[in-house]
Design goal:
Elements (H helix, E strand, L loop, with lengths): L1 H12 L12 H12 L13 E3 L11 E11 L5 E11 L3 E3 L3 H10 L2 E2 L1 H16 L3 E10 H4 L10 E8 H4 L1 H12 L3
Parallel strand pairs: 2-5
Antiparallel strand pairs: 1-4, 2-3, 3-6, 6-7
Helix pairs in contact: 1-2, 3-4
Length: 186
């Protein structure tokens, strides 16, 4: 494969020997790793998002639903990882989201070269379009290795981005409730 040749040239460029024992299979491993890590570029890998009609089972739910988790992505400027926590909440209208779908969508949009601001917006756009909730809020807190390993070299700082819509934007109490609930987990 052509990309394996590029990886060999990369190894040479940093001053190592791509034919030495520990590096012989590295080009193949790198190609396989990149296909896995950057699956967000392939539409066929996008996860199916399961939604349910609110009230279909006799229970109409109109309170905040929160999902939190970890994510990692790759800086589009330096191709170095950034990673951290996500905090997602929505107040349903007519649709309820399947439990694992937030994590799957965050992972899918994260699996391409990104900036944190775009990643934040893409995730919210996806769920806002699909669910049309009364409100949606999404926060990413991330460490950027491009800031920690090179350049300014400041360790453990976080970049925080948010996207806030609907009742979370209009009603301070809803936003404060969300923030108080996620801060209990930090």
């Amino acid at each position: 494969m052509e990309f394996e040749k590029i990886v060999k040239l990369y190894i040479l460029a940093i001053g190592d020997n791509p034919e030495r024992e520990g590096l012989k299979d590295t080009p193949k491993r790198v190609v396989k790793m990149l296909q896995e890590m950057f699956q967000g570029y392939f539409k066929y890998t996008k996860p199916k998002i399961t939604v349910f009609n609110n009230g279909e089972d006799g229970i109409w739910y109109n309170q905040m639903i929160i999902d939190t988790g970890y994510f990692y992505s790759y800086c589009e400027h330096h191709m170095i990882p950034f990673f951290g926590h996500y905090y997602f909440a929505y107040i349903p209208n007519k649709k309820i989201l399947g439990l694992s779908k937030v994590a799957r969508i965050v992972d899918w949009y994260s699996s391409k070269l990104q900036i944190q601001e775009r990643l934040t917006k893409e995730v919210v756009d996806e769920f806002d379009k699909l669910l049309k909730p009364k409100g949606i809020i999404f926060i990413l807190k991330a460490r950027h290795l491009c800031k920690e390993m090179r350049g300014v070299r400041k360790v453990n700082g976080e970049m925080i981005t948010s996207e806030v819509r609907g009742v979370f934007k209009k009603e301070i109490n809803a936003r404060q409730e969300f923030l108080s609930l996620i801060n209990k987990n930090d």
